[in-house]
Amino acid sequence: MLAPLARALTSRVPAVVARRGASKATRAFSRTSAEAMNRANKIDPVNPRLHVWVCDIQEKFSSAVTGFDHVAHNTSTMLRAIGAMGGGCGTTRVIMTEQVPEKLGPTAASVRDAARADAGVRSHCVSKTAFSMYDVGKKFIERDSPVEAPARHVVVGLEAHVCVVQTVLDLLANEPNCVVYVCVDAVSSIRLEDRAVALRRMEQAGAILTCTESVVFEMMGDANHPQFRAVSKILRDGATNKPTDCAPLPSI
User: N or C end of the chain: which has fewer CB within 10 A?
Assistant: First the structure.
């Protein structure tokens, strides 16, 4: 009786050990994959190759969109900070759209002026009738960089559940290997519930939710950056002078 039992137990030991080894290997692989993914999703300060999509932040929407002043303020602060860095060490473009401007008017002056002030950034402003920015903006996307530096796209603007979400989905669908960031402190809608649903949908589709200041510091990368003091001052001023006549936007 004991001999068959011993043989059965002995035969199972290698299989159990193998399963445990496989489990450990799987966990190690998962950690490695997560670390690689985290690295891939950072903005590379050496070669940012960044495209900032500024979607329809037009004065006409100021009285209707919740937190419009915060969207305009945070966007303009980010653009000024990126400009102070000279656009980073890579190629940075600002692609700004206006939805039917002959009816809805121009981009908010603070945002427009901040984009113009970016000496180291290539800025483009185009009108559109389509909700997504992609079709009118894709011609400005820099595609001649090496494969190891995939494009990063930062999206801000209005409205989160219409033009912003469609732009994000089009970028994810049409730009291979790209990473899309959505700045939650610089996107909004008339109704906050629409904004909340749009943020969730964009994240589930593969976009990364972040904030404008995080984008700036990832681009800068190091406190030894030659423009660190200038950029820090812009961010401090932006934090000090935030709009006070409306509540800040919810984080998520």
Answer: N
> pTM of the full predicted structure?
0.81
Per-residue CA distances from 99 to 78, 166, 191, 213 (Å)? 22, 14, 19, 26
Instruction: Report the half-sphere exposure of 185 (CA within 13 A, side-chain side).
Output: 18
**Domains in the chain, start-ordered, CATH in brackets?**
49-221 (3.40.50.850)
- Non-local (6+) Cβ contacts of 172 within 8 A are 178, 180, 205, 206, 207
